[in-house]
Structure formats: C-alpha cells, structure tokens
Amino acid sequence: MRIAYIVNQFPPNITAGLGRYAELITPYLARGHRLAVFTLNDGRQTVEERLPGITVHRPLGRLLGAIGRRRRLNRTKGVEFLLLALTVVASNWRYFLRLRRSARPDLVAVHDSTNFLAALLCHYALRLPVVLHVHTTEYGVAEQRSIPDPVGLFAALERWLARISRRVVVATPEVRDQLVAAGWDRTPIDVVPLGGTFEHLVADPGFDRAGLDEAAAGLRVRLGIAAGDPVLLFVGRIERQKGVYQLLEALPEIAAGLPGVRLVLVGEGDVAGVERIAAASGLSVLAPGRFVGGRELLEFYAMADACVFPSLFEPFGLVATEAMALGRPVVLGDGFSRIFLGDPDRPACRFVRAGDPADIARGVLEVMTDARLAGELAERGRRLVSEGLSWERAARETVACYEAALGRLTRTSS
User: Fold this and answer.
1) Which of 248, 346, 364, 262 is nearest to 303 (CA)?
2) CATH 3.40.50.2000 in the chain, residues?
3) Are 144 and 243 contacting, i.e. CB atoms less than 8 angstroms apart?
4) Sheet of 231-235: strands edge to edge?
5) Domain 199-388 = CATH 3.40.50.2000
6) pLDDT of residue 145
7) Mapping DSSP to helix (H, G, I), strand (E, B) and coil, where does residue 49 land?
8) What is the rounded distance in angstroms from the CA atom of residue 293 to the CA atom of residue 58?
9) What is the pTM of this model?
10) How far apart are CA 88 and CA 42, in angstroms?
11) With 0-12 CB in 10 A as exposed, 13-18 as middle and 19+ as buried, what is 406?
C-alpha cells in the first residue's frame, strides 16, 4: 500500500505527543508499505529526507521559515498560535502540489483537523480516499477549547472533514463517543489505542535502570531539590486544558498533608502565569518552561515519587504511558480514557475529578502518603503498558483501518 501521511510533527521536529506518536508508529507502518510523510519544516530541517521505508517531505516557505529559524513558535501563545496555523495552511497547499505531481498514493492519512486544507484538496481535487486521524478535539468538539469558536465554524469544518473521510481513527472509546455525540455519525469511527512511549527502552534487557536513577539524583541536585523532599511531577503543555491551574489550587492542601513536597511542571506554555501564582502564594513550584524529550525526560520521570496529569480532556495521553512504563504511580484527571484504569478492582492509576482541586489534592495525598498503594499502582501501571499497549499492535490495527477504507471505496465505486 502506498500511504501519504500528513502530520504536523515528525522527527526531529517533536514538541508534543503528536510528534512522539508519529516517531513511534511510522517505522511499523513502513513495514511492507510505502510511506510518504508530509510534515512541517520549522526552518531548520532538510526539505527531503529518505529513511528506511519512509520518504519525508518538508516544504519550506520563505517568510514563515525565516521566523521558525529565529525561534520555535509556542502554540500556547495567541499570536504564535496564529503564525503556526498560517504555517500549517501554507504547508498544506505545498503538500497538495507535491502530491499532484508525484506517484499517486492509494490513500491519504490526515492527522487532525488542522490539516483540513490538505484533506479537502486530496478528496475533491485529487479524488483520493482520505482517512482522518483525530488526536485532539480541543478546537471544535470539546467543551473546553483552546481557541475561540463562538459561531461553531471550526466544529462545522470538522464535521465536513468527517463526511469526506472514508474512516475516522481515534485512540479511545471516549473520543469516539464524543464525536458521535457531536454529529460525526456518517463515517465509521475506529478505535485504535496507542502504544507506550518507552516501549522499546524498558523492554531492552540492557536497560540501565541504576544509571537512570543515578542521573535522576543528579537532576534533583541541579534543580535544588533536597534529597528527602517528595517530588510530584506534571508533564505536558502548561495551559488550562491540562488542568494545571486546578493543580495549583490543590497544592496548598497537598503541601499541608505532605510537608516539603515539590511540584515540578515540565512543558511549555504559561510558565510566567504559573510563576506569578506560585510567588503570590508561596508555593514550591519548579517550571523549566520548555518541551523536554529524550534522555532528559526519562530523568524527570525517574526523579518523581508520583506523577499527576489532571487533564480536563485528553484524547489519549502518552504521558500516562511514559510514567507507568517507568513504574511511577499516576494520578489522572477524568479527562483521560478509562483505558488506563485497567481492572477496576485492581486499578492501575488513581482517577480524580479534574475540575475539582480538592479531589485532586485527595487523590495525590492518598497515593503519596501510602507506600503500599503507590507500589501497587506503579506495578499495575507498568504491566498495563507493557502487556496491552504496543506500537506493533497499534500499527497493525491502523493498517486494517486503511484497508477497510480502500475496501469501502471499491464497493462504493462498483
């Protein structure tokens, strides 16, 4: 199968979970299939690149490429989000031009509604079958949105994309149900849970856990955290949808029940706002203020006594797989899928009401003050990720969705 794969992030341009997803699943998709990836260029990547089984196209515009070379745009800031949106739209046009003059793919996989222009052009102009992957619903469907849409234009655009797509692929049953409730009922919606971010690392017999723990101890020292201080870790964009402000409201109660606790926020976004809140209330909060990946991210997880991700909504949440894979007890907001709960009688995580700071505090204190509970959650979470969330399975199920889309097209055409 020849697959055109349109996604906003692809290595080395990874700034969020979407980039990690593309990095981890595409090598499996390329096994036995020809994959052409069309992705953004922040001004520092090569325009064309060949990888095993994958050809990567990164068209570069002069104006926005020049902006990207000077600084990486932060999508959580209004003006920079607008510039990123313009970059996506302009790049979508270039993807279309490149596809129009290249060998015709069997199918176009479009990731998220931000790539709406490419999806519409491939469907209407090139008459190609489109499969839409929905990684986030925060623009037009979710109650809590990251952009204003007072008259529902983006929501209408998303429904349009669903109608012209042969299949829609989501990562959880909750997102599927959310889309159906929003009127996405004319196209089959397939649920394909993702894999774990650190799947290969922790499965490697040569994985040096002792060395990682030693590096984590060094990170603790560099951050100025005393050896005996409990560390509560948050990883993700620092913005409203991730429940950060409710977490900050919960912190005084957490600190009262767990003296010396240090909250570490890893991610980019409203770092200045967090620092103002922390300074005004005397909270002990550390926020590096940047996207962290690779070995350094592993060290942050290994340093943590527990992880909290109180998202108001989360289409999947790779951060949960990351923390669980490394044996960290996890507290999740109810915006996460119940996939991460595992067996309700022997849960793999502690769920809390994301909009309720008092409930966040209760959940965190239960986990961080009960060593037995923390250990049970850590072990169950580790097993849930290692046994149930593999990228090989995710790729196999994704290919099955693509084949179903092509089969449906054949039946429609006959």
Assistant:
1) 262
2) 2-195+390-413, 199-388
3) no
4) 285-286, 262-266, 231-235, 306-309, 330-333, 350-352
5) yes
6) 57
7) strand
8) 22
9) 0.85
10) 11
11) middle
Which own/partner contact pairs does 347-352 have at CB distance under 8 Å and 24+ positions apart?
347/377, 347/380, 348/324, 348/377, 348/380, 348/381, 348/383, 348/384, 349/320, 349/324, 349/377, 349/381, 350/377, 352/310
Backbone angles phi, psi at 335, to 5 degrees: -75, -10
Say yes or no: domain 2-195+390-413 is CATH 3.90.550.10.
no
Burial of 139 (0-12, 13-18, 19+ CB in 10 A): middle
Q: How far apart are CA 379 and CA 31, in angstroms?
A: 32
Write the CB contacts of 173 (distance below 8 Å, at least 6 apart in sequence). Answer: 191, 337, 339
pLDDT of res. 410 = 41
Whole-number pLDDT of residue 67: 56
Residues in the chain: 414
Contacts 24+ apart (CB under 8 A), 396-401: 396/28, 397/190, 397/192, 398/25, 398/29, 398/169, 398/192, 399/1, 399/29, 399/33, 401/131, 401/167, 401/169, 401/190, 401/192
Helix (H, G, I), strand (E, B) or coil at 388: helix
Backbone φ, ψ for residue 355 (5° rounding): -85, 5
Preceding amide of 27 cis, omega within 30: no
Given a cut of 70, the residues of the chain with pLDDT beneath it are 62-82, 84, 138-151, 408-414
Are the C-beta atoms of 159 and 184 separated by less than 8 Å? yes
Closest CA to 235 of 249, 247, 219: 247
